[in-house]
Amino acid sequence: MCAAIYIVSTVTGYVLTSALLLKCPTLLHRRKRERFLSKHISHRGGAGENLENTMAAFKHAVDLGTDMLELDCHLTKDEQVVVSHDGNLKRLCGINANISDLTYAELPPYLCKLGVTFQRECFCEGGEDKRIPLLRDVFDAFPNTPINIDIKVNNDTLIKKVSELVVKYDREDLTVWGNSRNHIVKKCYKENPHIPVLFSFPRVLHLLGLFYTGLLPFMPLKEQFLEIPMPSLLTKLKDPSRLTRSQRLIAWLADTLLMRKALFQHLTARGIQVYIWVLNDEEDFQRAFDLGATGVMTDFPTRLKEFMDRNGISK
C-alpha cells in the first residue's frame, strides 16, 4: 500500500511539474536571445516567382520585405561556395554534371523554365538572370537580411568556408545553418558555435520523444531554430488518386504528431523559432500561424506578404 502511494505521488508530482514547466519554461531555462525574428521566409528566394536561388529571386524577395532568405550551398571544384539546391545540374541546367566536378567559371546557366518543387504541376519561367551565384555575392548584396543556409553535402571544406564567409561579413547574428542530417549539423556547430543551428531530422524525432514523454521541459536544447514540413502537404503535392491508404495514414499520423500548438508555444517561450515549410496557399499559411509557428517558408513571397498584410500579421 505504501509503495503504491509513493508511486502515485511521484508520478503525479512529475506530471504536474512537467505541465508547469511546459507552460512556463523560463522557470528552469534561460530564454535564448533572439537575434532576429522571421515570419516571412522566402524559400530559395521565392522559387515560384523567380528562378530559384538566383540573385534576381533574392532581390525580389528583399524588395518585397521578406524577413529571411532561405538558400542552399555546394562547393565547386575550385572551392567556391555557390548557391544551388541540387548537387547535380541535370534538373537545373539540363547537363548531367556535378557542381563539385566543375570550376565556378565552368558552371552553365539555369534553364529558362524550372519546376516548382512544392507546388504540383507548377513551373517558373525566369528572366535574364540565370547564373548560379556565389554565396559571397548574396552576402554583399543583402548585408542586413537574415539568411538560412542549408549545407547540402557532408564536406568539411564547404562547412569551413561558409563559416569563414559568415565571419568575414560579420553575419553570425544574421545567419542560421544546418541540414536534416545530424552529422552535418554537429560539424557546423563544432566549426562555429556562434552561428545558430537548426534541428536535424534525428533531433526532431528526439524532440518529439521528449515532448510526448513529458521530459522536454527539463532538457536543455542547443538549437535555436526548428524548421519542419507540414506533413499534410503530401496530399497536395501528389495526385490524390495515386496516394495509397498507407501513404495517407502515414501523412495523417506525422501531421498529428508534429503539428502541435503546445510544442510550438513551449519552444517559442524558450526563444526557439519555429518555421514551417514549404507552404504555398492561404489555407496552410493560416494553419501555420494558428498553430503558433514563428514563420512560414514559401515559394510565393508576394502571396504570403499579401496574406499577412490582409490578416494583420505583424512583422
Write the layout of secondary structure elements.
Elements lengths: L1 H22 L16 E4 L11 H10 L3 E8 L5 E3 L6 H4 L19 E3 L7 E3 L9 H7 L5 E5 L4 H13 L6 E4 L3 H10 L9 H13 L11 E5 L4 H4 L7 H14 L2 H9 L3 E5 L4 H9 L4 E4 L2 H10 L5
Parallel strand pairs: 1-2, 1-10, 2-6, 6-7, 8-9, 9-10
Antiparallel strand pairs: 2-3, 4-5
What does the radius of gyration come to? 21 Å
Kindly state the mean pLDDT as a whole number? 95
- Percentage of residues assigned to helices: 25-40%
Tell how many strands the DSSP assignment holds: 10
CATH overall fold name: TIM Barrel
Shape: globular
State the end-to-end CA separation: 57 Å
- CATH architecture group name: Alpha-Beta Barrel
Integer count of domains: 1
Main pleated sheet: 8 strands, mixed
Q: What ranges have pLDDT less than 50 throughout 5 or more consecutive residues?
A: none
**Based on helices, strands and strand pairing, what is the structural class?**
alpha/beta
Determine the strand fraction and express it as a percent band.
Answer: 5-15%
The helix/strand order is HEHEEHEEHEHEHHEHHHEHEH
Number of helices: 12
Transmembrane segments: 6-28
Subcellular location: Membrane
Main location: membrane
Family: Belongs to the glycerophosphoryl diester phosphodiesterase family.
Q: How would you characterize this protein structure?
A:
With 315 residues, the chain is α/β, with parallel strands linked by helices. The protein has one domain (26-311): TIM Barrel (Alpha-Beta Barrel). It contains twelve helices and ten strands. The protein has helices spanning 2-23, 55-64, 90-93, 135-141, 156-168, 182-191, 201-213, 234-237, 245-258, 261-269, 282-290, 301-310, and strands spanning 40-43, 68-75, 81-83, 113-115, 123-125, 147-151, 175-178, 225-229, 273-277, 295-298. The strands form two sheets. Strands 1, 2, 3, 6, 7, 8, 9 and 10 form an eight-stranded mixed sheet that branches. A two-stranded antiparallel sheet has the order 4-5. Strand 2 (68-75) and strand 3 (81-83) form a beta hairpin. The radius of gyration is 21 Å and the shape is globular. The mean pLDDT is 95. The chain crosses the membrane at residues 6-28. This is Glycerophosphodiester phosphodiesterase domain containing 1.
